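Work package 3, deliverable 3.1, input record:
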Amino acid sequence: MSHHDPSRTADLLARLLGPAEPELTCEECFQELDRYVELELAGRDADATVPGMRPHLEGCPACREDHDSLAALLTAESP
Amino acid sequence: MLRVEPAPVAASVAGSAVPEAPTSVDKRGTDAESLGWVEALSGAGRRRDDAVEALHALLLRAARFEVARRGGGRSGELDDLAMQAADDALMAVMRKLHTYRGESRFTTWAYKFALLEAAVKVRRRAWHGHEVPLEADGWAQLADRRSSPDADAETSELIGAVCDGIAEVLTPHQRTVLVALTLNDVPIDVLADRLGTTRGALYKTLHDARRKLRARLSEDGFALESTTQGERS
C-alpha cells in the first residue's frame, strides 16, 4: 500500500473528525460493554438497545480494542 | 485458542438456594449462575473466600488471554503483567459489585475489568521509556497528505481546511490532545498518564475538539456526510 493511498487519507480524516452521531462517553461505554457484546454475539440488535455505542467505538480506538477483546474472549470460550 | 472453563464455584453456587441478591440485580432476567456468583461474593466466610479465589482465577485467564492477544514480550514478564491485571481487576470487581445489574452474565461483566486492566498495562509497558511524539510530527503528516500527488483537489482543500481549523479554533490543550491521539497514535491511557488526567477526561477533550472542527468545516461550506468524506457545497 502506498504511503499516499487515498484510503489512508480518508482514514486519517475519519480519525481527526470522529463520528458525527451522538456517542456515549468512555465511562458509559465501559458500563454497557458487556451487555452490548452479548447482544451482538447473540445476533440481536445491540445498537438499538445501546444507542450511541457504535459511534463511540468508531471514534475511540481504546474502547474499540476493549470491545474486540471481550468479543474474542466470549467467542473463544463458547462451545 | 484459549478455552475458559466454567469456574468451579459458579457451578457449586448455581445449584444452591439464593435467598437474597443485591437490589441492583434484576432476578427475573438474570441467570442462576450469575445470581450465584453475586450471592457468594456478597456473603461471608468460607463460601465467599472460595468465590473470591475462583473469581481471581477467572480474571487471570481473561488477563492472560488479552496479554497473549497483544503479545510482544518475554513470557515471564507477560505473565507478571497478567497477574497484576488480575489482582487489580479483582479489586475493581469487588468494589463495583453493587453496580452489577444482571443485564449480562456475571462472568462477562467481570471479564471486562480484567481485559481493561490487561490492555492498559500492555499499552503502558509498550510506551515505557518512550517520548510521546511532538505535535509537529503530526502536523507534518497532515501537510504531507495535503500535498500528496494522489490527493484530489477536494481532498487537498478539505485537509487544508482541517489544518486551518485545528490552528484557529482549538485551544492549545485541545490541539495537543487531538494531534497526539489521532495523528501520532498515542494510546489514550498513555497520554492520560503523561498529562496527569484520565481517559474519560481526555476523550471529552477530543470530542469537544472534533465538534469544534466539524462546526468550522461546516461554516466553511464542507458537507460532512460521513466521517471520511467531505464535499464542498
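Chain A touches chain B at residues 2, 4-6, 9-20, 23, 25-27, 30-31, 33-35, 37-38, 58-62, 65-66, 69-70, 72-74, 76-77 (CB under 8 Å).
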